[in-house]
Design brief:
- The chain is built from three helices and nine strands; from the N terminus they run αββββαββββαβ.
- By secondary structure, the protein is α+β, with helices and mostly antiparallel strands.
- It has one domain (26-179): Alpha-Beta Complex (Nucleoside Triphosphate Pyrophosphohydrolase), CATH 3.90.79.
- The strands form three sheets. The chain has a four-stranded mixed β-sheet with strand order 4-1-6-5, sandwiched between helices. A three-stranded antiparallel β-sheet has the order 3-2-7, with no helix packed on it. A two-stranded antiparallel ribbon has the order 8-9.
- Helix content is 17%, strand content 31%.
- Residues 154-190 have low confidence and may be disordered.
- It has helices spanning 15-24, 70-82, 141-150; strands spanning 27-36, 42-46, 57-58, 61-63, 85-98, 103-115, 125-129, 138-140, 177-179.
Length: 190
């Protein structure tokens, strides 16, 4: 006796199982800085070509270490990667993103450049850019939501512009490359 099974018509919903699949992937918590200067520009860096997502632009930051707060992580990573001192301000957005072999949680804060001249110590290149100029650079998919959160807002609205009345200053896996094609209006002084 032989049994023939036909799986062509068998359909199983995958959605209920995605959380289980995601929980099996390595998970990294990343502190990310949107660093503003006095000219209302944002600092971005380009990943080295030989690493994961090589050549893509990103907002600087890095992995949290045990016992470290997100603010401490961001300050340490920016000092290590760029050689500057920043003031960590308001929380902008938290993003959970799953690559093919890695899950990341990006906790993003507005930051103010305090002292030092930025150097690409752990990246290929760095640039100060306006919100409008962000669309000219290719970012990893997870960074797209950061840019979307920045649209239509200016640094003064987050307390990092230094105006009177402001509340304080304020890796691995395949990745789809996305080109930002959005209009990001510059803020106007109030």
């Amino acid at each position: 006796m032989s049994l023939i099974l036909n799986f062509e018509s068998l359909t199983l919903p995958i959605y209920p199982y995605m959380s289980k699949i995601n929980s099996l992937l390595p998970h990294k918590i990343i502190g990310v800085a949107v660093i503003w200067n006095e000219q209302e520009q944002i600092l971005i860096d380009r990943r080295r070509p030989e690493g994961a997502m090589g050549g893509l632009w990103e907002f600087p930051g890095g992995k949290i270490e045990p016992g470290e707060t997100i603010s401490e992580c961001i300050q340490r990573e920016i000092s290590e990667e760029l050689g500057i001192v920043i003031e960590v301000g308001e929380h902008l957005i938290t993003i959970d993103h799953t690559y093919t072999d890695l899950r990341v949680t990006l906790t993003v804060h507005h930051c103010r450049h305090v002292t030092g001249v930025p150097q690409p110590l752990e990246s290929d290149e760095i640039r100060w850019v306006t919100l409008e100029e962000l669309e000219e650079f290719t970012f990893p998919k997870a960074n797209i939501q950061i840019i979307a959160a920045l649209k239509g807002m200016g640094s003064r609205e987050w307390g990092v512009g230094g105006d009177e009345g402001d509340e304080g200053a304020g890796e691995e896996g395949e990745e789809e490359l996305l080109m930002i094609n959005a209009q990001c209006p510059m803020p106007h002084a109030q």
